[in-house]
Amino acid sequence: MVAYLRRRLRWKLFLSYLAVVFVGGIVLIVAMEFAIPRAFARHLATMGMIGSDHMMVDGAPTDHMADDLFVQFRTAVTEATLIALSAATLIAVVASAIISRRVIAPVREMMVASSQIALGNYGRRVALPAHRPIADLDEMGQLADSFNQMAAQLEESDTIRRELIGDVTHELTTPLTVIKGSMEGLIDGVLPPETETFQQVAHEADRLQRLVTDLQELSRVEAGAYELHPKPVDLGQLTESVTRSLRRQFEDKGVRLQLHSPSGLLMAEIDPDRISQVLINLVGNALQYTPSGGQVDVTVQRKNSNAQFTVADTGTGIAADDLPHLFTRFYRVDKSRARTSGGSGIGLTIARYFVEAHNGRLWAESDGLGQGSMFAFVLPLMIERR
Ligand code: ADP
């Protein structure tokens, strides 16, 4: 019984109100016993009804009329006290019921919701008063709002986790199927043990390895588990060295690579390895999606207090519908072609993370399929000291 009461906030509230009423009652009774007879006698004395020599030792009047008056007065005070105590008890019952409904109902709702969330039902929310701004809610309302925000975050992470597992499974399936099929064919003697067969297996194993490396990088970046090592870098020089490292591949494919860099210094406080990685990804993609005979222009220039990098190609272009999704991981415009050319659709996602980690912005533009594409990003320049 005691344990039951201890676990119920409503009863605790009621009992604490009752304790207040009880203490109030005791104080009143004590006051009546000690203070009232003296005060009554003093009052009668000042009214001239009894003389000071008529007073008894304990302070009660001895005079018959005064005695009568005192008894009546005491009865009236006792009745008034009893009525006051009953009213206070009633108010305690009503107040504890109202307060417990206002406080306990939302707490109980949150308890139910949190146990539902613990069971994996991440869509569960607690009800908030409609049409009222959060700032106008009381502490319980604000707690409910924080609870809902927490549930929304959990739901989002769970969705990302599910999608990631789905995407990764999907990405792993194709190369594994090819490798397994080829090996079974070789074992059964259906496939000839030729260089071409082994090359195909090796090619798929390479894809698996690339995918695993990309995934490791993605998980590090998404968890923010990487460190930037910023230092002052001349962006013109950095772009020059990136394009130099890729020039050979452009020549092999027959795509022209043009670099437009500023004549003076363009200094920014960046991690050169990460920004080189972003540039390599963009220029590499431009080469991949531009057929032989096309051109890729890499430009780095000052734009107000920023440096802007652009990589423009005359390649396949991107449909307007695809543009907003390019930076979503595993998104590829042409899935079947990207699969043969080995892209996993992670590069741009990582590139955007790195640019944003430098307080920059990365975006893509294209006039549509066959119209070429332009990828650009801006980075804040170092403040010049005069
Ligand atoms: P991937 O490894 O597949 O290249 P990315 O994240 O780098 O992954 O690119 C995502 C998708 O964006 C690519 O699969 C491709 O469809 C599209 N894309 C990227 N760069 C270009 C480009 N220069 N021209 C046309 N499409 C591009």
> Which compounds are bound in this model?
adenosine-5'-diphosphate
Specify the structural class: alpha+beta
Q: Which fold name corresponds to the CATH topology of the largest domain? A: Heat Shock Protein 90
Beta content comes to 5-15%
CATH superfamily of the largest domain: Histidine kinase-like ATPase, C-terminal domain
What letter string, H or E per element, gives the SSE order? HHHHHEHEEHEEHHEE
Number of helices: 9
Radius of gyration: 41 Å
The CATH level-2 architecture of the largest domain is identified as 2-Layer Sandwich
Biggest sheet descriptor = 5 strands, mixed
Uncertain regions spanning at least 5 consecutive residues? 52-57
CATH class of the largest domain: Alpha Beta
Q: Span from first to last CA?
A: 80 Å
Shape: elongated
Overall strand count: 7
Number of domains: 3
Helix content: 55-70%
Q: What is the residue-averaged pLDDT? A: 86
Sequence of strands across the biggest β-sheet = 2-4-5-7-6
Which key phrases capture this entry?
5-stranded mixed beta sheet, alpha+beta, Helix Hairpins, binds adenosine-5'-diphosphate, 9 helices, single chain, two-stranded antiparallel ribbon, 7 strands, Heat Shock Protein 90, 3 domains, 386 residues
